[in-house]
């Protein structure tokens, strides 16, 4: 029988990271801590752990070479192994069914001796780079999904049950994020549901969420905005967890949602896939604890770290102008620490932090990684997604602003000449071309017809990535997605509104409409050849 990685970890009394390290050394390919292992692998793991406990060599091969204490070597190996192992899978959800990663590898289970060699290699590799001592940080989670599927309700439920109310009345103000205390640790939730907020931030080059929760109502299943949310999370390479909400309703049909998920290439674990699916009810609270646990497991696998003593960097997640207080901006601290009195540089302005409050409205003097803080001291309201840097004094802040103004001008000039740039010419010589597309059409039938034709156009040299295929006119969200993913938006029998066209213009996104399928396909052919007429 098969057993999940995290279950095995629990049974054996070791942490998940430790097991993943062993699996890496065995060459076992897994997708997440909820991937299953076969009996042979489980046996091998037990042998390795037993050998280790007996003071054997398998897990501490570095000792002899490095002269370092065994525990240090093992820890270091854990750190380095974890990063590359985690990266290709949960960090980059694979939308294509061609994904050839299987939970159990074709390779025969190696013996402990072979494992020792593998982890020896890892340990030696680690020795070349000094072991980092960067501490873990809490995950930042965003909730996305179709309208009315319960995003706000889910956030409210978590806030009500997991946010420690402060002395002062416990009135939590809306600052754009809140911190939930769970049995597995702290989780930071972005408080603005929906993928618009997410994409706006991403469109400005920042990524604030580590994990995306895609909420799907059990009585409604997958809807257009669900697909969009999935596309956005995938484009951002953010691992996603599906929360099937409203399971308390009599008409809830969890199985149907699971089946529908496979149609968008998110195959639930029960069906042999690797998509974590958690049934919940934002109304009764059923399953919410499980959801939080899965978030923590995913975060652990992602091995999120940030240095509180490093150089500060953060992102604006919200800002508003208060009549009395002035500009209030919420900064998500990503690296380093900010303190009252520091100078912050945002966009092409700077300000001095006069006061800071945490997400509960309490005054604080400093804030470290994965902490949302409301900052008072900017003279102009910054924009969501703006990156924030700090400077030790006013002079340094001014200088940073000057550098930014220069950089922007250079980028603008470069953009004007973009079509002729060397980089682009080189780009067209690269062997495998990837053409990113967003499709919009009037009916599901047209969408499928176009996708069918496109599928046949793919070759060894050209990969067509349809990042999003939707019914109806393109939205601003599509444009933002296209802009971050350098995709072309192709519309069939639908046209963009003036507002959307304007944003596309501003962002330099190609947005084209067609009334005849074959004209659209001709355009795709041109994109494939890479000799598209420049649009000015
Ligand atoms: P959002 O648009 O995704 O933020 O959805 P809301 O949170 O506003 O929820 C839409 C509607 O669904 C509201 O009337 C909620 O009360 C209801 N709702 C949300 N979650 C649940 C749930 O788990 N069970 C039931 N029965 N209703 C829910």
Structural overview:
The relative contact order is 0.09. The chain is an alpha/beta fold. α2 packs across α6 (112-128). Strands 13-12-18-9-10-17-14-15 form an eight-stranded antiparallel beta sheet, with helices on one face. Strands 4-5-3-6-7-8 form a six-stranded mixed beta sheet, sandwiched between helices. A four-stranded parallel beta sheet has the order 20-19-21-22, with helices on both faces. It has helices at 5-12, 16-26, 39-53, 62-66, 70-86, 112-128, 151-162, 195-203, 224-235, 254-263, 288-302, 394-416, 422-427, 444-457, 476-485, 498-507, 517-529, and strands spanning 3-4, 36-37, 140-145, 177-182, 185-190, 211-217, 240-245, 276-279, 313-322, 326-335, 338-339, 343-346, 349-352, 355-357, 363-364, 366-367, 371-376, 387-391, 433-441, 462-471, 488-492, 511-514. Guanosine-5'-diphosphate binds next to α7.
């Amino acid at each position: 029988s098969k057993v999940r990685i995290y279950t095995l970890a629990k049974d054996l009394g070791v942490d998940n990271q430790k097991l993943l390290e062993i699996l890496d050394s065995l060459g076992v390919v897994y997708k997440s801590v909820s991937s299953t292992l076969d009996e042979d692998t489980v046996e091998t793991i037990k042998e390795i752990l037993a050998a280790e406990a007996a003071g054997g060599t398998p897990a501490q091969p570095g000792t002899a070479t490095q002269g370092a204490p065994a525990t240090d070597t093992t820890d270091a190996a854990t750190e380095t192994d974890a990063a590359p192992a985690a990266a290709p899978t949960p960090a980059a959800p694979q939308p294509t069914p061609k994904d050839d990663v299987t939970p159990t590898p074709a390779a025969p289970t190696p013996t402990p001796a072979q494992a020792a060699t593998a982890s020896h290699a890892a340990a030696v590799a680690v020795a070349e780079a000094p072991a980092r001592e960067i501490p873990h940080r809490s995950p930042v989670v965003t909730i996305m999904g179709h309208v009315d599927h319960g995003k706000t309700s889910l956030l409210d439920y978590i806030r009500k049950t997991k946010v420690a109310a402060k002395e002062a009345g416990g009135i939590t103000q809306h600052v754009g994020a809140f911190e939930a205390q769970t049995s597995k640790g702290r989780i930071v939730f972005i408080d603005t549901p929906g993928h618009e907020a997410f994409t706006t931030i991403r469109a400005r080059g920042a990524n604030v969420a580590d994990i995306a929760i895609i909420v799907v109502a059990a009585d409604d299943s997958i809807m257009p905005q669900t697909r969009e949310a999935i596309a956005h999370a995938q484009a951002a390479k953010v691992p996603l967890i599906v929360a099937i909400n409203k399971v308390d309703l009599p008409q809830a049909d969890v199985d149907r949602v699971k089946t529908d998920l496979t149609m968008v290439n998110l195959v639930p674990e029960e069906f042999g896939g690797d998509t974590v699916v958690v049934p919940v009810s934002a109304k009764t609270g059923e399953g919410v604890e499980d959801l939080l646990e899965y978030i923590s497991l995913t975060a652990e696998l992602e091995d999120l770290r940030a240095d509180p003593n490093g150089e500060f960097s953060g992102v604006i997640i919200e800002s508003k102008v208060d009549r009395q207080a002035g500009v209030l901006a919420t900064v998500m601290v990503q690296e380093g620490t900010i303190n009252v009195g520091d100078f912050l540089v945002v966009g092409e302005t700077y300000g001095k932090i006069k006061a800071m409050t945490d997400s509960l409205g309490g005054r604080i003097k400093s804030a470290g990684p994965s902490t949302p803080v409301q900052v008072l001291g900017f003279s102009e309201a910054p924009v969501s997604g703006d990156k924030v840097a700090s400077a030790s004094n006013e002079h340094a802040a001014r200088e940073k602003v000057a550098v930014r103004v220069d950089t922007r001008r250079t980028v603008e000039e470069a953009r004007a000449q973009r079509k002729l740039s060397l980089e682009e010419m080189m780009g067209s010589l690269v062997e495998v071309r990837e053409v990113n597309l967003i499709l919009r059409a009037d009916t599901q039938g047209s969408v499928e017809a176009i996708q069918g034709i496109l599928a046949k156009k793919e070759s060894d040299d050209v990969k067509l990535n349809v990042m999003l295929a939707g019914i109806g006119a393109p939205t601003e969200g599509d444009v933002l997605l296209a802009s971050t993913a350098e995709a072309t938006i192709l519309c069939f029998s639908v046209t963009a509104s003036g507002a959307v066209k304007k944003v596309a213009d501003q962002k330099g996104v190609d947005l084209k409409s067609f009334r005849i399928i074959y004209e659209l396909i001709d355009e795709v052919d041109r994109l494939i050849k890479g000799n598209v007429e420049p649009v000015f």
